[in-house]
What we know:
single chain, alpha+beta, Arc Repressor Mutant, subunit A, three-stranded antiparallel sheet, 5 helices, 3 strands, globular
Amino acid sequence: xxxxxxxxxxxxxxxxxxxxxxxxxxxxxxxxxxxxxxxxxxxxxxxxxxxxxxxxxxxxxxxxxxxxxxxxxxxxxxxxxxxxxxx
Length: 87
């Protein structure tokens, strides 16, 4: 995943709110939806973009899908940004 693709995924305010919500803990879709004023279809679209950017991951438990922040990619992003700023 390129830095440009990651920034594109993070460019939307709703996706930023999703990331903020997931910083604390893994959450089911219903809980993520409480943080946003959008339809479930739109939320699904945003979650898909974040998953394709590898910023979040998901797991199914029964009828629920839980999302969490992909910390290894987040750490890699921070390292890339730090390296970029130091040059």
